[in-house]
Amino acid sequence: MPTSSSTDRSTAATMRAAVLTGIGVENLRIVDLPVPEPAPGWVRIKVMAFGLNRSEYHSVTGQAEGMTLPRVLGIEAVGVVDLDPDGTLAPGAQVATLMGGMGRIFDGGYAQYTVVPSEQVIPFSSDLPWEVIGSVPETLQTAHGSLTTGLDLQPGQSLLVRGGTSALGLAAAALAAEKGCRVYATSRRPEGCELLASRGITALLDDGSVAPQVREAEPNGVHAALELVGVPALRDTLAATAVHGTVCFSGMLSDAWAIPEFYPLEWLPFGVRLTAYSGGAESLPAAELQRVLDAIASGTLDLLPIHAYPLEDIARAQRDMAAGTHIGKLVGLPW
């Protein structure tokens, strides 16, 4: 099991953290802050890794709602319990935390310590390296929730993942393939298609018109489609979906948030359902997190490539995420 010295009750008085003071990545700086004290009902976690997410890009670029500054960014983190005033969680216990206002209305996971409400702490046990564990929680939460709550995907059905080489797309494709589904996933780049194909996924080069490619393989359309690109691709994704099939809108890689002058009778193919998904820590069962970590450890499940950055390089990591420099999940390591 990954170890930490966080349980010896000699927590330092200060910590390193990435604080956003204004709009723009140039305003994301590493500073020394007091280690936060948890109130009753909150838990202090020594952060061993944190995933980078599109949500933080939205914060850095001024697109996030409900954001207050200055703020330690980060909507997720994994690590070990450092202090639980309620005595429910033992010091040193491995935990994950995500969402619930992290990194927007209270300080988040881009730090050596974070304090979060106890109800959004998910326990687990794993021997995996911290950078691998840190790549999982929020991506898994959204992928799992999109496939279950959003799409009610059943074994043997067909699924289209639009935005298939994003971290979320790769995870959703892997989970769907694990269920025995026929999975089609898109990438705008040939190398992305090569990665998808290497994982046994039917790769489609996204030139803006994917529906005809899908219907060559699935003449009636796919049973389900996961929309991660956003509004610019949505109409084509709907056209790739079968009558009584479902499209779940779970991502906005394009940063297009709304459909101007939305006219449902024109936009929606008859009989195709459109829904959406967005969840939090309460949407990720601890048993599912543990199952996936165990499957990764055993080699039976491979969610995504991982690119790790030290905390001091967080601005570069943000720029790489914005530019799409890497395929897979970007992870920060604060120690």
UniProtKB/TrEMBL annotation:
Keyword NADP set for record: yes
Origin: domain of life: Bacteria
Keywords from the UniProt entry: NADP, Oxidoreductase
One MF term in the entry's GO annotations: oxidoreductase activity, acting on NAD(P)H
Pfam families, per database record: ADH_N (PF08240), ADH_zinc_N_2 (PF13602)
Coiled coil spans: none
SMART domains found in the cross-reference section: PKS_ER
Domain Enoyl reductase (ER), first and last residues per copy: 24-332
Keyword NADP among record annotations: yes
Protein name: NADPH:quinone reductase
Taxonomic source organism: Actinomyces gaoshouyii
